[in-house]
Design brief:
The chain is of the alpha/beta class and 227 residues long. It has six helices and twelve strands.
Length: 227
Amino acid sequence: MFMVRVRPAFAMEVQDLTTASPKVVQNESMALQPVVVDDAVDEAAPATTSGSPTHKRAKTSTAAPISVSYIVETPTQRGKFLIQKALALGVPKGWCVCPFFNRKDKSTITGPLCGKLHRGEDVVIDVNGASVPATRCRLIVSRYKFAFSGDCRPSQLLVEHAKDADVLIHEATFEGALVTIWYAPLRLKVLVDGMMGEAKKKDHSTTEEAIDVGIRANAKHIILTHF
């Protein structure tokens, strides 16, 4: 598995992942090995419709699955400055406004204190020396973290990089088997093999494994999918 971590300016810039300079970390559980392609003609294969012989891909021991996971994290961003909010808190505009200015013009004229708030600086006004934090006069766009597993087995590396993600999309190709056993006075839930063996054989995850990754990563939302 590869972990690709990028920090685009906005969440909508996910398409720029391929052109970014990501940090690539190889999963310790899945070695990167070359896939050998045999370009020799397969004499036993029938000719294609174009008349040329077909080619085959060699099944060699050097072929290993490669999975790519994406972690997209946007920083906390300052949004629009709310001048009316600042004025309601007692922050003066600081300038005299001519009476012939219309209402729209007045709302765009600000003094030095509003300018500081606009730049993200806190200000102190004369009303009992009260402090007005800039965060109270601005829309704040919170950080957002999105994790996408790709085809993979459960990975501690993914758990670490997807820590506290808002959304984790994890593959769940195979079903596990979560069995509830009644044993008075306890009710025990036991995870039996189910399709675990098949999942390990084909380097995929079961539903329970995918959910466990999300729980360990403390993801707010977990979406299971099958590729």
